[in-house]
Amino acid sequence: MVQNQPITIIIGTNRSTSLSEKVGIYYGEQLAKKKYPIHYLNLNHLPHDFAFSALYDQQNKNTLFNQQTDCITKGIRFIFIIPEYNGSFPGVLKTFLDGLPFPQSFQNKKAALVGISKGSQGATLALSHFTDILHYVGMHVLPQKVRLPNLKKNDITTITHHETYPGLIDTQIEHFLSF
Amino acid sequence: MVQNQPITIIIGTNRSTSLSEKVGIYYGEQLAKKKYPIHYLNLNHLPHDFAFSALYDQQNKNTLFNQQTDCITKGIRFIFIIPEYNGSFPGVLKTFLDGLPFPQSFQNKKAALVGISKGSQGATLALSHFTDILHYVGMHVLPQKVRLPNLKKNDITTITHHETYPGLIDTQIEHFLSF
Amino acid sequence: MVQNQPITIIIGTNRSTSLSEKVGIYYGEQLAKKKYPIHYLNLNHLPHDFAFSALYDQQNKNTLFNQQTDCITKGIRFIFIIPEYNGSFPGVLKTFLDGLPFPQSFQNKKAALVGISKGSQGATLALSHFTDILHYVGMHVLPQKVRLPNLKKNDITTITHHETYPGLIDTQIEHFLSF
Amino acid sequence: MVQNQPITIIIGTNRSTSLSEKVGIYYGEQLAKKKYPIHYLNLNHLPHDFAFSALYDQQNKNTLFNQQTDCITKGIRFIFIIPEYNGSFPGVLKTFLDGLPFPQSFQNKKAALVGISKGSQGATLALSHFTDILHYVGMHVLPQKVRLPNLKKNDITTITHHETYPGLIDTQIEHFLSF
User: Fold this and answer.
1) Interface pTM (ipTM) of the complex?
2) Which of C16, C92, C137 sits opposite D51 (nearest CB)?
């Protein structure tokens, strides 16, 4: 049996009980079927003051932040679930990245991006902006990005029962596993 | 005497004693010479847990956050000082924006953008990303953006003594005042 | 009676009988109702070799190109109809811009952007990229951009009979006329 | 002896005797030292009316265009030399891409990006925009992008004699060869 490399799914918002979390779990379930070990990092679990207590002079000194982000240091493959906030990614997702050691956190590692939105844009600009950032920190970004627009708040069935979304997700996962 | 409209200068990072703050003060001094009333909003003064205590269900309920951001609701013209972090704007700047009521906070108001960096990029991508966001929230963005690359940490003289930077800043301010 | 300023509508592709042209005409009809003089510039009317005969050392020397683009020099307000090609704007639209004298062609003038696509993106990235370019050449870009995704090839009724698109267009035009 | 895969270097402008061409040749020389077969595609060699004679209904019907672009169909690895024109890539580079069959031209192939400029930006936005496009067509983009700002027109020595540029280029090539 081939030992599959674990995959970390990052829930890109600190909103509690978010649709992003449900989307992340859906991705995890698909990967579990393929026998991949999954790890979740939900930004909701970060220390509430981490923007002040884990950045700049405090980088690497916040024990709780370090515990939560230990999976970044150790991981190789990441799936980012990114909801659209104000036409881009959540600020807290970038703040989290601003708190991570550079360049070892993401350099030469691999990312797949998933954008979700209630509106019609499907986080298109969020994924473009975040690609710029991940390229800056030296990360490989899967070209096949999934955009899921027109979702209903907190309702995962608008994805799982959608005519095309499960197929898009499955295709992306296949690309990611051979990336 | 014409009553000049006040201008709010937003220091786009929560880093303490940042070069961004010094750049903001430099802009304020230039505007003061032209008799414009100035207001400063330094993200360093936001409640340390505002990403959790002032967003989503807590939006508009954090008294300290509301006090600090009252100048947004009341202001019309804004200058954003944006340091380059990880190839884009600081996450905390977007988180701050994610906590503001939409669309009344910035819609139909006016922004000038200033990018600073130690590296050679001058926050070019940061300004592009942030323009996308400000356009999304309905704000007018001055096309003349100032990029100040190759700065030394905390040393404002690498700007004030620079051959071309003070002229660039002055030209931008002139454009902004007639914007 | 107030004399309304003429508005130039730029059909951002050289494809013949394009949906972009029909969208441009639709915008022109709405503006005509409001008594605005309209001028059209269809990139399909440019000399077929203009990428070689009107750029670089040949800039400003191609009489046919100059005749077609005379409306740029003289105009103040522009509406760009931008179809999505390969995830961004048509190359020919940028080539056209590369042939225009800088900075006098667009500096301090005003633009509204309209993105159209058969796919679900609605030219979102095209409009973001083109905004970067227009800002670079010193042009004011209306924050209210119209994105029209999921259109049928050459069928203007997928816009005119759409539940929300005519209202979006009307709102944008109102913003543009007071811009 | 291992047979190295050939690499196609695309000169991303149709300007004659461009600095981009010299930069492309410089890359080719470095790769030749490492025993990689090189192919050049200079957009200056495309038919002058290709924007009209090789796109849309004419796609794949222009024999001269097809001859020049045959290396795209057959190639796997590409280096794009991208000069900054009006704050982004040359329009002709995108027009060229708009003439290529989709998705087989670039899907699942690999690209390295090199941005050059006389100004201080180093084609930063050009590379970001072009990454969006290449990701849209399904291409893998090397995160390590080389930006070469502040060049003198047609003077390759401002690169080859530069303190840091040859090292940057060498590092990028090393990353690309193991990409």
Assistant:
1) 0.97
2) C92
